[in-house]
Amino acid sequence: MTDSATTSGAAGAGGFRVGDERLIRVTAAAAEKVQSLLARQGRPGGVLRVAVVGGGCSGLQYKMDLQDAPAQRDIVVASAGIRVVVDPKSALYVTGSELDYIEALQGGGFKVKNPNASTTCACGESFSA
User: pTM of this prediction?
Assistant: First the structure.
């Protein structure tokens, strides 16, 4: 993880670092959906975890989860009124990405526009870097 994606290299009180939108940026549509999901789960102060894990047609895929708070070593980015957390390993793959939400019957849902993806599969759910 380079310092260009974080505003502070020091760990916060919870053992996490604070990053900025150079790591990941959230669109207004995605933020609205995340806020609604957090409220529905009774976690108004929660966070969205974005991780990259092995799998999918192209070798890597995104995993997203709602959590109560950041974990140790996470990088926390405030964007569009929500907090996104990324672990240091996933940060290598998502730096510069944009998270969007598309409301559609087919092909809708959360979409990641990742400048680091060298190839993506036809379904758009996995990538390689």
Answer: 0.84
